[in-house]
Structure formats: structure tokens, C-alpha cells
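Hi R.,

As promised, here are both runs. First protein below:
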Amino acid sequence: MDGEYYYFGKDKAFEYGARISKALHGRAISKRHVKKPGGLEYEAAKLNIEPWDFYEALEAMCHDGRADEIDEATYLVI
């Protein structure tokens, strides 16, 4: 990593974070892998992102201030 600060999902947030922020700003996303609006799998599919990559990106976006974990099962895209 050449001394660069790394955190879980950083690469995925760099790759997908802007797209996620633009499409889902102000929306709550359930961590549950459900295929209904607001569910992780559904929203990932809408954005053509693999669910695990979407999850990683959201975790990192919490770290860099573009999302918030509002409870144990939900993200809020800021």
C-alpha cells in the first residue's frame, strides 16, 4: 500500500461512490440482501454494481462521510 491509508471498501468507493451518491442521495438502504426497493441487492442491480461491491462501497462511504450507518441494518446516503 506504499504507506497510503487504506480502509475497507476504499477502492470500491472510489470506483462507485459518485454514482451511488448521485443516484441515491438522501435514501436509506437496507443491508439486507432483498430484491425490493431500498434493499441492497435491488439498489445494486439498478446501478449495475455487484452486491458485494455495493456493500463495500457503502461501508467506505461511511468512513469518508458520504453515507452514514443509521442503525445496524441501514445506511443513509448523504
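And here is the second one, sequence first, then its C-alpha cells:
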Amino acid sequence: MNENEKKSGDWKMIVGGIALIVVLFIGIKFVFWGLGQVIPKPLADLSQSVQSSQSVPSGGDADAPSFCVHCGKGLPESFEWGQFCPYCGKKVE
């Protein structure tokens, strides 16, 4: 009779272990979902997503550098790749 009790206890432990794993998994998912609801997204992430969704004008402004790669000084807004830097005189490519 001792063998029957041991066999019946084995399947109860297996089912209990599986149930414990499922409950812990659901609990962890719930905790992370709750943290996602409580903690707001940083403003930098929101502004980047807005900027990436806006269309860029076809005037070539997207390719224009803002600083010279040689001297590091700021370039005018009308500057395009392949022109010479107005400060150091080197070609910016």
C-alpha cells in the first residue's frame, strides 16, 4: 500500500509544479505590464518617432551636413555635400 501512495503523490507533485510555473509566468507578465502602465515613456523617444514619421522635403535638405567634417564649424543651411567649406576651404564629401 505504501507504493500506491507514493505513485499517487508523484503525479500530484508534477501537476503542482507545472501549475506553479504557469502561475509564476503569468504573475511576472502582469508585473511587467503594470510597470509599463505606470512608467511614462521618455519625451525623447516620442519626439524621435514623430520626426521619423514626418516626410522630408525633396529639396535635398536631408543630405546637407550641419558641421564641417574637417574643421567642425557650423555650415549654412543652403550647404550641400560636395561643396567647399566656407571656413577651412576643404571639400566636404
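A quick note on the second one: The helical segments are 2-38, 43-53. Let me know what you think.

Best,
J.
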